[in-house]
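Feature request, filed as a ticket because there's no other form

It would be nice if the structure record came with a short human-readable summary line next to the tokens. Right now we just get the raw output. Example of a typical job, pasted below so the devs can see what we mean:
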Amino acid sequence: MEDQTTDISPLAAIILLAMVSLTWTLPRRFAFCPLLILTCLMPLGQELVLLGLHFPLFRIVLLVGMLRAVFKGEAAQLKWTRLDKMFACWVLVSVVFGTMAKPSMELFVNRMGDAYTAVGAYYYFRCVIVDFEDIVTSVRTLALASLPLAACMLVESNTGHNPFSAFGGVPVLSPLREGHVRCQGAFRHAILAGTFGATLVPLCMALWFYRPQYRRLAVAALIAALVITVTARSSGALIALCAGVGGLMFWKWRGYLRMIRWGVVIVLLGLSLVMNAPVWYLLARLSNIAGGGGWHRAFLIDQAVAHFNEWWLFGTTYTANWGPAGEVIAADTNMMDITNHFIDEGVKGGVLKLGLFLTIIVMCFRGIGRKLRSKVAESPAGFFIWALGVTLFAHCLSFLSVTYFDQIIVVWYWLLAALCLAIYSPLTSFAPIDGENVQEKMA
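Raw output as currently delivered:
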């Protein structure tokens, strides 16, 4: 049975009070920093349980942040965009359709908890991140948070003991794979820790090119991000890292993206004609090179297609029949371990929820493309926006290998909010800084 008691240690309580105070008192341009830091460095083991509802520390800070945005007038200044409205529709469908899968108060509370995190994080970031410099500041915050995280994961890698276990929510002894420690830091799984590090790499590179005074931090954070990715020993994170680095290298050829996209589509269609197995079994081939459970993830896609009639309308609360007997998660024996965020969207809300989720991602990519076809690409902000898009691409690849079931989801909502601002801000918000031009520097 799930623990229904509050578990907040004295040290965690002090940290919480400090973060709550900072969230309320800091100037708007720094108001998001405590939430991002707590997300990266505090495991979910510390939580307040109130009337059966679980509030990890980041959710408490999130509540204070939302109240701040309302009482200080920051929420009233939010200008709604098409992406904001699409996100609101996705949240609404997640609650309504997700609950209809098997109507019960327990399931409704679960879906409302996810909605609380989604609405709170995304719209709080939208209220307090209002110009491009705020995006840069938030990236600097994530870079700073990565330094102690990487240091602790190095200790974890060498000792097999996770320093974050003092806060609960993560095991004291780290799991092993083929005799090597799989470090997870403050995250609930090594894959999620590695994903955080891998998706931070493009942002560190963008920070390095944006301003000279940020380069020392960018280099230190880049090393930290690589340490986090490597010590997690996750093939999915390594693929995301390669995608991020490769995506940055395509900056010079961004004008050919349409041709590249169609080329990828044609190649995939061609492979689907010549392969004996469906094209998604390329994941299994990649795992033969990088290691990991690529075959299982391809098999999971197979099962989602085969059982489409079970989840397409409202999702489902029973997937134990999708895999071999006994291959279910310990916390819920009715559910197979869904290690694919896209499939998890369908399982928790049907085709409509999945469709809205994909629409949000497509709108972000299209918005980045339109912005970079303007004069913004000629400013230092151009490469920064490109790096945000590359980070989005890296996350999308990670979605094929893991479900975001812990605090990393806050980083995902931050990215969507940052992309929304970058896409819909006027061109005057991206004036060149210090006369530098990223294109010249990268030539």
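Something like this underneath would help us a lot:
Residues 132-159 form the longest helix (28 residues).
The two ends are 59 Å apart (CA to CA).
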